[in-house]
Amino acid sequence: MDGFPILTLLTFIPVIGMIIVLAMPGKMEKEIKYVTLLSTAIQVILAVILLSNFDYSAGGIFQKDSFQFIEKYKWIEIFGGSWIGTIKIDYFVGADGLSVPMILLTALISFIATLSSWNINKSVKGYFALFLLLDAAMMGVFVSLNFFLFYIFWELMLLPMYFLIGIWGGPRKEYAAIKFFIYTLVGSVFMLLVMIGLYFSATETLANGSKAFSFDFLVLMDKANYLKDGILSPLNPHNLRFIAYIALFIGFAIKIPMFPFHTWLPDAHVEAPTPISVILAGVLLKMGTYGILRISYPIFPQITNDIAWYIGLFGMINIIYGALVALAQKDFKKLIAYSSVSHMGYVMLGMASLTTTGINGAIFQMFNHGTITAMLFLIVGVVYDRAHTRGLYEFGGLANQMPVYTGFVTVAFFAAIGLPSLSGFVSEALVFVGAFGVDTLRTLTMISALGILLGAAYMLWTLQRVFFGQLPEKWKSLTDIDAREYAMFIPLTIIIIFLGVYPSAMLNIMNTSVNTLVEFLSVNIGNISIGGL
Amino acid sequence: MNDIILVNISIITLLLPLFGFGLIIIFSKRFPKLYMAGIGLLIINFFLSVVLLYAKLSNYISQDINFQFTWIDFGNVPVFGNVHIDLGIKIDNITVIMLFVVNLISMLVHIYSLEYMKGDKRFNRYYAYLGIFTFSMIGIVIANNLLMIYIFWELVGLSSYLLIGFWYEKKSAADASKKAFITNRVGDLGMFIGILIVFTTYHTFTFDSIFEQISNGVLPFDSNAWLTATGILIFMGAVGKSAQFPLHVWLPDAMEGPTPVSALIHSATMVAAGVYLSLRIFAMLTADAMLVIAVVGGFTSFLAATIAITQNDIKRVLAYSTVSQLGYMVMAVGVGAFQYAFFHLITHAFFKSNLFLGSGSVIHAMHHEQDMREMGGLRKKMPITYAAFIVSSLAISGIPLTSGFLSKDGLLAGSLAFAHLTGHWLLPTFGFLVALMTAFYMFRLVIMTFHGEPRNKEKYDHAHESPFVMVLPLIVLTTLSLFFWYTPNPVAPEQGWFLSEWVHTPESVVPQETRFDFMKTETEGVTESAVAFSEEYEHAMHWAHIPTLVLSLLLGGLGILFAFLIYHWRKIDPDELAEKLKPAYLFSLNKWYVDEFYEATFISGTLKLSYLLSLFDKYVVDGIVNGTAYVTRVISTISGIFDKYIIDGFVNFTAFLSGLLGLGFRRLQSGRIQTYLVLVIFSLIILLLFFEPF
Fold first, then answer.
1. Looking at residue A232, what is its pLDDT?
2. Contact map slice: B 150-189 vs A, CB within 8 A
3. Residues 6+ apart with CB under 8 A from B618
4. Is there a contact between B324 and B427 (Cβ–Cβ < 8 Å)?
5. What ipTM, to 2 d.p.?
6. Structural domain boundaries of chain B?
7. Residue B390 above 60 pLDDT?
8. Per-domain boundaries in chain A
């Protein structure tokens, strides 16, 4: 794979698709859809090629040599005066065990979401152009190894998302779109400040021997690169690293979304069109937890260790609170949205453990939540397309009317409940194993375990309200799923079952990197305080 | 025969029913007769389990076969080194006996359902679900580790959910299936935490390796108390699945499922999985944990029996009877009567599934009437079903020559011996009272259903003996409820091959100080097969033998006598009796109001909390967000006004001022060259004066 710019292609294939879409006349709706489908399909193929060339034994995280598919080009390099020095920003992308699962997920979900977008008929050209831009931005976030580049992709994703919700959304779309936009922007501002603070705190040595400030993640992870008086330098006794950590964390927490920053999510989901909900839940939420693992953890190991308990605490709150609020929902989509809040809590709990099993479980849960929740939103979409309502109490007895659909629903619901043999179980179990092994998190973990009970309660209750019982007269005309919907459900179902039975297929990808991360943390924390497996 | 072949056969028996499930689910639309494949696969499975049983007991009777593989490998974990999660299979005598029982009953139910479920619109689906159930149950049976048990445990829960809610159009069925799953999950939660403790401590899920580490003195969090807690937590899984108090409430409701399902899942196999699990972890139970288990079991058996006495739905009587008998088994585990717990599990599986299939036969004949008050006199119409009922009822009542006598007698003797050794006399008291009640309610059921005059003439007239495929399983199970399969001597179970050769009590591995006195071993590693724990225990069992025999026969006979007195000979009027004991009667009829209690506390509490939190979320959390947005907007409006009138005013004022100035300076720009010249020269002079360049 030497020299083949696979990550760049993964990121920019959708951009090319977008350019083609923009160049096409708006009347060619079908063709526009096929161009989009083709772009995302190429992305999936590239992701598979990436996976087949991925070296499972290379760690990445902080070791530049063991990152794979690296592309590093000079992007911006200007001399900015004597006290700013050389401003140098690289186009630096690479992959390790942390990003590959997310790359796979992004490619997969984008493809599925394209299929799900087939029914869009309002300004098709604009929709698919924005959709492809969104796809590119998401992929960019997961491959960037330079903070500046990361930030650009992070912000870039906001724009299409805003319009996709704001134009193609439901009745309160403007409210939801602006809420999403501003909320995320607030987080971004925090991130920007921290980024600039870090930039002025560490330097790297250039080829000509001079020193320059750096946005490079790997530079920022190495203590030796920091200046003595940098504002966010660990060497500076009066540094502001703790505040910076919290600011950065809030930026990510909004995306996860972590309680109490989660209220944009149900609104955004309820108003967003189905494919955008799928992307939102399937990929976007993972950026928050990915960012924490990629940036906060290795750049601030000591503070991470100090604060880990609180991450676990908020994880627990997310799990229990999200599940309880989900139980009270009357709108199918809102219920799934809150279940997302609950399920992302497991990711946080796993991360908080700072252990191999816990972090493995967390990343695996990110992937599994991506596939399972995507499927759940597709399920809501199918019934909403047909009935134009999502009220849980308005349905009943769909199992007889739409048996195949109900079959897929059962798989997805039980996957969300964490039924063994489906992928969600393995990741949740690993999260619990990891967190339980840490003395300080043990009580939190036991309380969190109640989440699997509440999860069963709201999911099965929904199953009963919508699918069991007698079919109301007005739904006698609902049809079972068609071929396109089969094409959305089948790949997800296969992945959910396959990873439930053979989780190593995914865990092996991330394993070495997670071990590297844990090792790096434990070394940098000084005293080895890694509590459990 | 090579032992790896046994492993392979067991894997095939595991996978065949799953294959049937997949086959039927995917292709049944195209091939409406596909359910026959499901039945065929189960028949193959049954023969494989017979082969396993024979091969194991004849070639490897005292050798266990283990097979395991790595499921998840975490690689080189910092600090801990190589960590991996293994799954695997353990084939010991208990495994093969269980496999035989599960496959046999599953096969019989498959055949029986051909007729019973005939005409159901989801006939194929039904067989698919039976397949996935059998798969899951076999998974539990052959697992050699806790994780795999947990995995299949949940899958059994799923299949139970699907089968209880099979007729999901009925709200009661959908409710019952949900209740079953969630109630089970409560128990599973405890079990899961127990498993977490185990993995955190031992870094493995495999029983043998856990036991080995315990016997080497490795304890969870270095304390005996946590070892006890771990045992109890794992046992919580059994409390859920085996419907023990306080989680017993789901099983009676589970009777909403088709009756053959009740026979297979909710009496013989799945609910016995809890007992099976307790037996699997028997070696790591401390005295305290065992006592808790014994009390839970004893109390459950008592509670359920008191409820069974007054129920009128034939299936509900049997359901409570199942709960009660499961309580017996659990109590037997707790009092250390390992062999009898397992023995009773097996004998109960046969006679209780026989009773359920028999009741299915009756319900079938009565056109889905389940109320015993509408029955009566059926013995003439349904002689085979009646015979099956009589034999099974005698078995469950513990009357000699039946299998139930053998296991129940031993179990009660175990509890008596336990009381004798430890002073917990409440347990045998429960045990013997239940024996009395069991005999009573079973014969109450038999008499109300089969004896006397028909109470519903119309339904009676339509009743008929069930067809052959339904009767055949009854015959098979009836013969299996007789003593000669287990022992040559109908009053001495311990002389039979089942107890003396096949099933042995495993050696406890917990620290000596946490064991009951009678389980302490002087020198570790010495347990003769004939002696369960210690000489002392053997003496106690010997002492308990005769009193138990006499007492249980007496009580069983008395129960049957009462049943005849009240319901057959009508010497005592049941209604009058109920009136006389009204509070007790209502208490029993309403199942001790446990459901109502849960409804009022946990369920409505959770729902209320969830409702409150959703309001909190909407008005407080989101309120703050929207409030912030509102405040920001107000501020920006104010600053807009400020901007417009003050800032902008200032700007405009400046502009105005400069305009004014400009007005003045305009005069300078007259356009006349001579004026400019004067100005230039004038300026130059001033500049020169100022800078003094010369």
1. 85
2. 150-152, 154-155, 158, 161, 165, 168-169, 171, 174-175, 178, 181-182, 185-186, 189
3. none
4. no
5. 0.93
6. 312-484+535-589, 595-683
7. yes
8. 6-524
